[in-house]
Each structure stands twice: as C-alpha cells, then as structure tokens.
Amino acid sequence: MNQSVIKALKLLNYFTMETPELTLKEIANKAEIPKPTAYRLLSALESSDFLYKTKENEHDSRYRLGLKLLELGQIVSDQLEIRTIALPYMEELAQEINEVIHLVISSQDEATYIEKVDSSRALRLYTRIGKSSPLYVGSGPKMLLANMSRERQEEILSNSELYRLGDHTPIDKQQLMEQLETIYQDGYAYSIGEQDADTTGISYPIFDSRNQVIAALAVSGLSSHFEGDNLKLLKSKTKQSAQTISRQLGYRGPDL
C-alpha cells in the first residue's frame, strides 16, 4: 500500500471518545511529523469525507471524524449482523435439502461469499468463505447486480471484461442486461454451470429494514438435482428461508 495512504489512515487512530476533536498541531505532535506534512495528509482525508474541519484560522485548524467512517462502519455492522442472523436458517435449509448454501454480498464492485454451509454430498465448488467473483457470474452475484440501479449496473459492467469463468468466452452485455431485468422481475436468479461445471444455482434476495437488497441466499448443487419437482421444492424452500432472514433483519415488505 502507498506509504502516504498508510500515514494518512494512521492519523485517524488519534481520535477517540475522550478526544473526538483535535487540532492540526496536536495531530502533528502525536504523529511526530511536521505540520505541513500533517496538513497535507489531513486535507486528503477531508476531501474523502473521512474527516471534516470544524474550525480554521491562520494559526491552526480543528478536525473531527467524518461521516464516511459512519457509513463504512454501518456496512461492517450489517455484514456481521446478517451472518449471525442468517447462519441458523442456512443450516436448517441445508438439513432440509442437502445442497450447498451460500450467503453473498456485494463489495467493491464484486460479489463476496461471507458464509457457507456444505452438503453431505461429495461436491467441489469454486466458492468458499471470503471468495470474491464478478457480479455477473452465478445466481447469487447476478441477484445482487439485478437489484442495483441501471446506472450502477452500467458502471460496474463497463469496468470489466465480461467473460465466462470456465472457458473465458465473451459474454454479450446486452443479453446480460436483459437477463438482469428478468431476474429483477421474477424475484429470483437461476444459473447453470457458470462457476462450476455440471452445477446449478438458484438465489433469492435478502432485504434489510430499509427495504434494500443487501445479500443473496444461494443454493448450489449438481444440475441433475435441479429438475422437475425437486427444483420446485428447492425454489420454495430457498425463497422461504430468504424471507425469514429478511424478517429477522427488520424487512416488512409486500412479499412478507
């Protein structure tokens, strides 16, 4: 990581409950760096909303922590909360259907798998806790992408070369956008062999108390299991679990 970035971020550690506001001079003294250097680093943090300036004059400036830290802290809090709440229901679902269950969130323009419950079947999957993948590959990631605004979708997809994971063949963006619209309208995502050969995935959205989609509950297994009446059962059970988790997170939307 760039040393200037590291130095700037370290300055945030000097703000505490006891000292929520510090002057430029106080920060420079604590960091043992010249005031011009401290001012440059603090200005970078201020421009990114990590700090805000409460007072400035020709002799000194005063700073407080900015709202960007509150926003990031809320994201971390939500992730910890959703894992704690979702895991028992994921385990219960895995017991009922004996397929692999994932909890997927979006993070930095990618999909990240933050929880997983395995099945008793011998099945090797591309996914693992902490693994990230493109938001356009797999049922869970696509569910998240489908529930973003059109502008956000365009932004994410324009920053990526769209290709299939297995054979790296190109993906048609227009077809993908149409598929995302279908997912949004249907309320679930369905994928075949997009991350692992001979596997199928289905996903349903998880909502928070603000009625926003914050995660996807995904079920994956051998494609031969996702057919006929068993597919209907898997969809019904997965949807029910996703709705239950959403309720536990405070969602009170029309589908519940």
What does this structure look like?
The chain is 44% helix and 21% strand. It has helices at 3-11, 24-31, 35-47, 67-97, 139-146, 150-158, 173-186, 228-248, and strands spanning 21-23, 51-56, 61-65, 100-107, 110-117, 132-133, 189-192, 199-207, 213-222. It is elongated. The longest helix has 31 residues, at 67-97. It contains eight helices and nine strands. A hairpin with a 4-residue loop joins strand 2 (51-56) and strand 3 (61-65). The mean pLDDT is 88. The strands form two sheets. A six-stranded antiparallel β-sheet has the order 6-5-4-9-8-7, sandwiched between helices. Strands 1-3-2 form a three-stranded antiparallel β-sheet. The chain is an alpha+beta fold and 256 residues long. The termini are far apart. Helix 1 packs across helix 3. Residues 2-67 form the HTH iclR-type domain. Keywords: DNA-binding, Transcription, Transcription regulation. Residues 68-251 form the IclR-ED domain.
Largest sheet: 6 strands, antiparallel
- Give the C-alpha Rg: 23 Å
Structural class: alpha+beta
SSE arrangement, N to C: HEHHEEHEEEHHHEEEH
